[in-house]
Amino acid sequence: MTVTKSQYSVAVLGAAGGIGQSLSLLLKMNPLISDLRLYDLANTPGVAADLSHTNTTCQVRGFMGADQLKDALKGADLVVIPAGVPRKPGMTRDDLFAINAGIVRDLCVACTEACPNALINIISNPVNSTVPIASEVFKKAGCYDPKKIFGVTTLDIVRSNTFVAEAKGLDINDVDVPVIGGHAGITILPLLSQTYPKCDFTAEEADKLTVRIQNAGTEVVEAKAGAGSATLSMAYAAARMAEACLRGLSGEPDVYECSYVASNITELPYFATKVRLGPSGADEVMPIGDITEYEADWLAKLKVELTGSIQKGVDFANQ
Ligand code: NAD
Ligand code: LMR
């Protein structure tokens, strides 16, 4: 087993935003992280000063504006990107493409120059397209490693675990529902048939839960009524994903999370399934496993939408 390091440098890009601030707090509390860099276009000096008063061992520094981006990234082991605009009611995640595609592209260009070997966790929507954009940027720069770029879909797993535990009266700490596909509407496919601990769902229960999980982001967008999308649950989910990546880097065995990554599991070049995290990032992309006819129907439908979203990202990065 390769044990690389036990303490890591992590950069958050978009750190002064709704997700960025809560996520930075959770990362500041993580003993695996010794050096936290907060980058945004504005307000990071204040957020960093505030966080620096918490008595955890991790050091925190703020970086503001494009001039300071590369300093924020230099030597980072992991870069988490929640930079970009969130949805308002009535919008799809794809409606964010016009603004967020360019933001993710430019931030990834800086990563290729300042920390080409870092793991990249992309939160900015539409994830189904921003992960292909990031990958194309790294390919163009000649430093693409498909094991290092992750679309963060952890919130779909967090939600599935919560909703299933509530519906079936299970201990929420025990429940694990894999979620595959992508991260938008019908491309989100919870595999309820693979729920741990093993659980039976009627057809009606499975349909109700599946559709709720697919629309859970919209549930929050509507409840926030124009004030943005999920931030607290997303920060929680992103902190869990970041920790899994760092535990994998440190050589800890058997670290698994679902994530949207470069994949040979289906005919699509990017797809979310369970991934084994290790010293080089996504050390193994796991197969889908056995699924029901109901899940297979969704899988066929989601592949059509996901194919279009992937192509849109690839085309944008190469235009
Ligand atoms: P927000 O508006 O509160 O914060 C976004 C931050 O990004 C702002 O502070 C802004 O200044 C910053 N930013 C914009 N352009 C930047 C750039 N070029 N460089 C650095 N920072 C930049 O939004 P939020 O609620 O934190 O959401 C951020 C993104 O995360 C949105 O795209 C949203 O759709 C996405 N999101 C994804 C998931 C997921 O499951 N993957 C969940 C929730 C939200
Ligand atoms: C979510 O699932 O909460 C995020 O993708 C944000 C959104 O726009 O729904």
TrEMBL record:
Q: In its keyword annotation, does this UniProt entry include Nucleotide-binding?
A: no
Q: What is its EC number?
A: 1.1.1.37
Task: Report the active site residues.
Answer: 183
Q: Which GO terms describe its molecular function?
A: L-malate dehydrogenase (NAD+) activity
Query: Which residues of the sequence carry a binding annotation for substrate?
Result: 87, 93, 125, 159
Per UniProt, the keywords (alphabetical) are:
NAD, Oxidoreductase, Tricarboxylic acid cycle
- The UniProt record lists the Lactate/malate dehydrogenase C-terminal domain at 153-316
- Asked whether the keyword Iron-sulfur is assigned, the reply is no
Tell me the enzyme class: oxidoreductase
> PANTHER family, from UniProt?
MALATE AND LACTATE DEHYDROGENASE (PTHR11540), MALATE DEHYDROGENASE, MITOCHONDRIAL (PTHR11540:SF16)
Q: Which family does it belong to?
A: Belongs to the LDH/MDH superfamily. MDH type 1 family.
Name the record gives this protein: Malate dehydrogenase
Q: Which organism is it from?
A: Ostreococcus lucimarinus (strain CCE9901)
